[in-house]
Design goal:
The chain is α+β, with helices and mostly antiparallel strands. The chain has two domains: about 220 residues, Rossmann fold; about 120 residues, Beta Barrel (OB fold (Dihydrolipoamide Acetyltransferase, E2P)), CATH 2.40.50.140. The protein has eight helices and 20 strands. Strands 6-7-8-3-9-10 form a six-stranded mixed beta sheet, sandwiched between helices. α5 links the parallel β7 and β8. α2 crosses α3, α2 runs parallel beside α4 and α3 packs across α4. The chain is elongated and about 75 Å long. Bound molecules: adenosine-5'-triphosphate and magnesium ion. Its EC number is 7.6.2.11. Keywords: ATP-binding, Cell membrane, Membrane, Nucleotide-binding, Translocase, Transport.
Length: about 375
């Protein structure tokens, strides 16, 4: 069998669990990350993202389960034995070394004869070659971040772990680095596992997003899939905005479920609901809802509401509308017409949406505290 460092292939977590005392931080995660893909682990603070990464890196050993790359079982091996490198949020560079020597540090320690050349190559990749002779204190935060990335890439890891690496950057730089990271990943073709609690960041960068909650994975898929068809209440609310309501399934009409919401029938496409009897939480995304002054004919679902707020954003207008259920819905209308709707707070409106755009999930998440 090849050594741990030579391991190649898809990264696989099998039933990976981590407990600290009687607290379960990571709860039996099964996960497969195809080689060369950009994978995001997205979830709220404390859900177990860093703990999961640390087990992949070997900085923490699982209480149960296995970490594999291809056919190689890495469980129990030391961090330096694994073909894995991590870029952390705080990217402490050695202040007394030049940028080139910072990046060459790993290869030099492993006695690589071409350490400096490899450092220059890695610096080129992150577009920092012209800064090679400077000291870290002479760089901006974003530039230091790039150097930290080069320092990990120079080791040619099979898997690169990124734990909130852009957390310390301001918004504009963050957006730039997101594009940059994606470019670098495509160029080097390594497996990237990016941890973030920023849903926009996860959606814009990753091929696959795993939404994590309380130590387990709620749902995994392409960003478009998760946004379009969330399977749990948690995912519906964590990824993008969702307008939701709770009702009771009363009937089936062809391909549709008919849900009674406070006396108003609401239709959901049967194939887009995780629940087929009893109570259901239905949801529809803000851009899928149309706001009208008068009741449109034949759209499917319509509910009357009262405008609470109007925000003109230039390309679009966002309306907050108070619904009969007491919920406030958010509706995003592109400003395609020259004639504006001219709505004001207090105006009565009709909200309509295509039943094929709604989704249905259980009203309570499994294991939720309620
Ligand atoms: N060494 C430890 N001992 C005890 N509890 C720990 C330890 N490490 C982590 N935890 C707990 O495990 C849970 C998950 O922690 P983790 O750092 O993985 O969360 P996270 O998803 O990375 O959160 P954040 O977004 O805030 O970084 C937390 O409740 C944390 O307090
Ligand atoms: Mg963390």
């Amino acid at each position: 069998m090849a050594g741990f460092r030579e391991a190649q292939g898809d990264l696989r977590l099998e039933g990976v669990t981590k407990t600290f005392g009687d607290f379960t931080a990571v709860d039996g995660i099964d996960l497969e990350v195809p080689r060369g893909s950009f994978f995001a682990l997205l979830g709220p603070s404390g859900c177990g993202k860093t703990t999961t990464l640390r087990m992949v890196a070997g900085l923490e050993q699982p209480t149960a389960g296995r970490v594999m790359i291809g056919d190689t079982d890495l469980t129990g091996s030391r961090p330096y034995e694994r073909p894995v490198n991590t870029v952390f949020q705080s990217y402490a560079l050695f202040p007394h070394l030049t940028i080139r020597d910072n990046v060459a540090f790993g290869p030099k320690r492993r006695k690589a004869a071409d350490a400096s050349e490899r450092a220059d190559e890695a610096l080129q990749l992150v577009q920092m070659a012209s800064f090679a002779g400077r000291k870290p204190a002479q760089l901006s935060g974003g530039q230091q971040q790039r150097v930290a990335l080069a320092r990990a890439l120079v080791n040619h890891p099979e898997v690169l772990l990124l734990d909130e690496p852009l957390g310390a950057l301001d918004l504009k730089l963050r957006r730039e680095m997101q594009v940059e990271l994606k470019r670098i990943q495509t160029e080097v073709g390594l497996t990237f596992i990016h941890v973030t609690h920023d849903q926009e960041e996860a959606m814009t960068m990753a091929d696959t997003v795993a939404v994590m909650n309380r130590g387990h994975i709620e749902q995994l898929g392409a960003p478009e899939e998760l946004y379009d068809l969330p399977r749990t209440r948690f995912v519906a609310n964590f990824l993008g905005q969702a307008n939701t309501g709770v009702g009771t399934i009363k009937d089936v009409e062809g391909d549709h479920l008919v849900v009674n919401v406070l006396g108003t029938p609401v239709k959901i496409l049967r194939s887009r609901s995780q629940v087929h009897e009893g109570d259901v939480l239905f949801g529809v995304r803000p851009e899928k809802v149309t706001v009208s002054r008068t009741r449109p004919e034949g759209v499917g679902n319509d509910v009357r509401g009262v405008v609470r707020d109007v925000s003109f954003l230039g390309v679009a207008t966002t309306y907050l509308v108070d619904m009969p259920s007491g919920a406030t819905w958010s509706c995003y209308e592109q400003n395609l017409d020259v004639e504006p709707l001219d709505l004001r707070p207090g105006d009565e409106v009709w909200l309509t949406w295509n039943p094929g755009h709604a989704f249905g999930v259980p009203t309570e998440d499994e294991g939720s505290l309620g």
